[in-house]
Automatic annotation (TrEMBL):
It comes from the Archaea. Belongs to the MtrG family. The lineage of its organism: Archaea, Methanobacteriati, Methanobacteriota, Stenosarchaea group, Methanomicrobia. It comes from Methanothrix thermoacetophila (strain DSM 6194 / JCM 14653 / NBRC 101360 / PT). This is Tetrahydromethanopterin S-methyltransferase subunit G. It is an enzyme of class 7 (translocase).
Length: 84
């Protein structure tokens, strides 16, 4: 019965690789990984710059409107006929 249990176990293939070839392949994979990381960082940096620019414009418009409304409220507080 013990032999039947051993027959159903999956067989794992074994590969023998030369150490120099393995190091060469790993070095190439490291270079590829560095290029991918650099590209990803550049892409996210550009996206961050564009989002920051858009938010800056939106905040600037809001601040400008608040300043204009404050000016109108304080300068023409008693004379609404001039404003309208």
């Amino acid at each position: 019965m013990a032999d039947e249990a051993k027959d159903t176990k999956p067989v794992v293939p074994v590969a023998v690789v030369d150490r120099d070839q393995y190091r060469e392949i790993m070095a190439r994979l490291d270079k590829i990984e560095e290029k991918i990381e650099f590209y990803s960082a550049e892409k996210f940096m550009r996206a961050g710059k564009s989002v920051g620019r858009d938010l800056g414009v939106a905040y600037g418009v809001c601040a400008g409107l608040i300043i204009i409304l404050a000016y109108i409220l304080f300068m023409y507080a008693g004379n609404w006929a001039k404003v309208i």
